Amino acid sequence: MISKYKDGEITAEQSYLIIVSVMVGTGILGLARSVAEVSKQDAWISVLINGIGISIIVGVTIFVISKFPQLNFLEYTSYLLSKPVAYIITSAYVVYSVFASSLIVRFLNEMIGTWFLPRTPPSIISLIIVATMVYILKDGLTIVGRFNEIMVFAIIPLIVLIFPSLTEASLINFKPIGGAGLENILKGVMPSFYAFGGYEVILIIFPYISNKNKNNLKYSVWAILFVTALYTVIVAAQIALFGYQELTGILYSIINYLDVIDFPIIERIEIVFSFFWIFAVLGTLTIQQIAGCLALQSIISNKRVSIIVYILSPIIYVLSLLPDNSAKVVAYSEKVGQASIGFGIVLPILLLLMYIIRGRKVVSEKS
Amino acid sequence: MGRYNKYKRYNKNINKIEKSNITDANSEILEEAEININHIKNIFNGSSDILFRKVNLHYNCGNFDEATLIFTDGLVDNFIINEGIIKRLNMLQESNHSKDTILNFLQDNLLVNDIKKTKKYEDITHTILSGDTVLFIDGLNEVFLLDTKGFETRNVEESSVESVIRGSKESFIESIRTNTALIRRKLKDPNLVIQPLTIGTRTNTTVAVVYINDIVNQQLLQDILNKLEEIKIEGVFDSGYIEQLLINNNFSILPQMLVTERPDKVCANLLEGRISILVDGSPDALILPVGLFQFFQSPEDYYERVIYGNIVRFIRFIGFIIATTFPAIYVAITTFHQEILPTDFILDIAKTRVEVPFPPVIEAFLMEGTIELLREASVRLPSRIGQTIGIVGALVIGDAAVRAGIISPIMVIVVAITAIGSYILPHFSTSYAIRFIRIPMILMAATFGAFGIIITWTWIIAHMCRINSFGYAYLTPIAPIYIKDLKDTVFRAQIGSIGERPLPASNKNKKIE
């Protein structure tokens, strides 16, 4: 056989695309609104700051965990944070991942219900999505990695669709730059966090990269910066078009943003947007869930990931149907966003501190 | 006395043969021609096309030995048998050879390409059945195998399945020797290896594995050779048998081996480190390992200049999308998403559908069904009638169906464009895949609209991510991504700038140095 990599592993190049794919997803819909509520016309600055901050955190994360190339998430957290804590964190990650996945399924459900199938019951749509997810996940990370490499291409039409509406935008809406005040700008970082969430899967999947090298850190950070640039442009474009006052009144502002311009032949461009957006979100969903499955696999030390996929999927299906309406889904997403702060910011910093305190000793002992 | 001894020896050997298992292929021939010949007659059960021609070998002192030529009538070149062998053997009468020098005389004077010696029955039967001639000489426990192949074959003709406008027109035929010669003529490289195997316990078909020794991945080669040797089957009549026995995803709808009848395509793929399998009796060569993007490539891309090559390849991608998804998009729009089109346009469509009693999905299936029938029918019919059936059938039936008001004219347009789109790919086996993707796609679009199309594509992509061809992922070089390979698979690189060989090759040396 000429396959370069073992089953269940991914390549470094795949890991960069996975980072992009997992971040660009559901959060893109309400990002501009939720940030503009706080930091007004300077929302794009908040997004930019957040993105740069996250790229630093990702740099730190990869710096720490690349010192343990042979260990998976559970094992290196055990080294750094003692075994019981590691088990608690990993279990918490599994729970978080299940909730995040079910939220993504629900978001998909909302969009499909709004734009494609208003009369189809949500239970059916969720069922199809979860079944699709199981089909992609059941053979492990390698297949998910490849699948997401294809799904990243769905982002290209999304980027292209930003441009036509810019003809109607006016830069006056940005003024006064910095007028929201530094405090508000920094506060605006928080609500934008959900849109950026997802990069924390690097904690789980990094150990599965088969050709780890020193470029991992550099290109992973570039991947984050790419998403940051994309988000900043999207938020800035919406502010320039609507102005922040109008923006705060729209639930999924990007949909309305696209609708400003009339296209030939295609009357409702948001359907085209949703078409590609669903592909992007399916990518996010599969990575989020495979990370949870891999975390659970490390706890119960099971050989085959497929059984875990089969066990967790019904839970996701049920959870995705629990919120009653769109407003509750948004509230739910804010809670998940807060949890992702725990894994995305607190945990990497904690790992860095523990690495400085005791990890170096451990690594030098091992070598 | 000598006569008596000979008789005794004869009896002893008869016993020996009866004792030994007569079907034992490894048993060796004996000095007595008569026993050997009887044994061979037994092996062939007295078939009428196996001819035994007796010739006398004369020595200088007027003695002679009996010699027998055995060959299969119809598989040999009669001219070689008559002029090259029998005439030469008769010439011995005039010469004065002694018994010792006669073997040298044979070696020097028989007018055949190749003379081999053997002692095994297995070789003898195989030789006779592949069109060569066996020469028995009484008193010698060795036979001569003479190359006299000369059976009727088709001429090398223009490829009918993969025709090109620019580039070589020749295509493989049913004779494996001609096919290997076609390859060898294009690749005059001593490292080009044509490794023969025999597969099929009854058909004894020659299968040749062709590769370039210093480029091919040895591990892959070994793997394929092992798999070929493990094959246990009675008969091999086409390369399709080998294809199905080799691939590991037989229930996938996607083609997983490149099937081509163009020698130039085989040679180009050999240079990229791939392996080709030729089967005697089949004009189609197999190429492996391949991924999805190889199915979008035609040799013509490289014969025309780079911009045209790239544009044509891009058109093929679009053709693939149209052929798989276009009817589904039409069904989804007319059933669920009328609002996506401008009001005037959707009203036009609605007007044409006023008299149609069916929902779009039924319409689509009626038309698709008709097209599939026409397609199958036109393949079976002689080519002139086939074309007429295709055009007349599509025009007449489509027009009549519209007039009768069971199908809307736009549906006819959609299905016609789809049918054209599915022929745009240079490989015929891909058109099966397209058809079988299209039908579920229409069903899903009729049930779930655009969401159904998304889900169907997701399943297809997930399936593509999953399968591999001898460890070579199907979607390489996109998933897993190999940026260096991208420029000459998805795109078409400038000739001379292609640089390193793609993934299957082990020897990554530059193509142009």
Q: How does this structure look, described?
A:
- The complex is a heterodimer of chains A (367) and B (513).
- In chain A, 72% of the residues lie in helices and 0% in strands.
- With 367 residues, chain A is mainly alpha-helical.
- The model of chain A has no long low-confidence stretch (mean pLDDT 87).
- Chain B is of the alpha+beta class and 513 residues long.
- Chain B folds into 3 domains: 2-146, no CATH class; 176-290, no CATH class; 302-473, no CATH class.
- Chain B has helices at residues 2-19, 33-43, 78-90, 102-109, 121-129, 176-186, 218-230, 239-246, 263-271, 299-303, 306-335, 343-353, 360-380, 383-404, 409-422, 428-448, 450-466, 483-486; strands at residues 50-58, 64-72, 115-118, 133-137, 143-146, 192-199, 205-212, 258-260, 275-279, 285-288, 468-469, 472-473.
- In chain B, the strands form 3 sheets. Chain B has a 5-stranded antiparallel sheet, with helices on both faces.
- The radius of gyration of chain B is 31 Å and the shape is elongated.
- Chain A binds chain B through residues 1-3, 5, 10-11, 13-14, 17, 112, 116-117, 120, 125, 128, 132, 135-136, 139, 143, 145-147, 149-151, 264-268, 271-272, 274-275, 278-279, 282, and chain B through 217, 219-220, 223, 289, 336-337, 339-343, 345, 448-451, 453-455, 457-459, 461-462, 465-466, 468, 470-473, 475, 478-481, 483, 503-504.
